Amino acid sequence: MPDASVPDTPLTTYATAAQQRAYIAAMKKIRQSRKPGEPIRVYVCASPHIARRRQWEERLAKIRRRLPGVQLVQFGDVFTPENYAEKWPQLSPTFDGMVVVGATKRGPEGHVYRLGEVARLEVIDIVKTGRPVLLHARRYGLVPFVDCKIHRVGKERLRTKVTVPDGWDPRDYEPTLQAALRALRPRSTDTRNDQHIDMPSHLAHPFAAPPR
Description:
Blueprint: H1 17-33, E1 41-46, H2 48-51, H3 56-66, E2 71-73, H4 75-78, H5 84-91, E3 97-101, E4 112-115, H6 117-127, E5 133-137, E6 141-144, E7 149-153, E8 159-163, H7 175-183, H8 191-197, H9 201-204
Parallel strand pairs: 1-2, 1-3, 3-5
Antiparallel strand pairs: 4-8, 5-6, 7-8
Helix pairs in contact: 1-7
């Protein structure tokens, strides 16, 4: 007899409907408060081990395609190991959001990502201010943290385990992802053009599958 606790279809989110509504409303507020022409800076959180991989520039290119017009800021652009502790509290409030690139033991097929101590604290700092934080998973593309299952691991050295719902697919145009992407989209100084890009991408381009 099948286990009734096992869902028939893969989960698309770990968030409740109320959490998703609150997140979408928060992203809309960010979008509405943005001034036309205002630059957007998104911090890319990745360990040195990941950022030194040969495929790193290709990974960044994928993120840029999902965040057109946004300045991606990496650790080496603004920090050194020596000044990081001093400069992070000063610079982190200037970031409009964060994209986290974590490691998974199962390679591209994995959906459980592990963040180290520093990444965990960076995520906490950005999330608690209400700014968007997205995980970039090799298989799933960009996934809002609100849709993931977050689990703290470790005792003396605290780390974070982030589980992407196994039914997540950016081609489904999940409403939380679309809200985050709009919140991180520069506002045009051309009002008519801005009204067009404010449309959900699945309405503006109904037959185009977004890049991951």
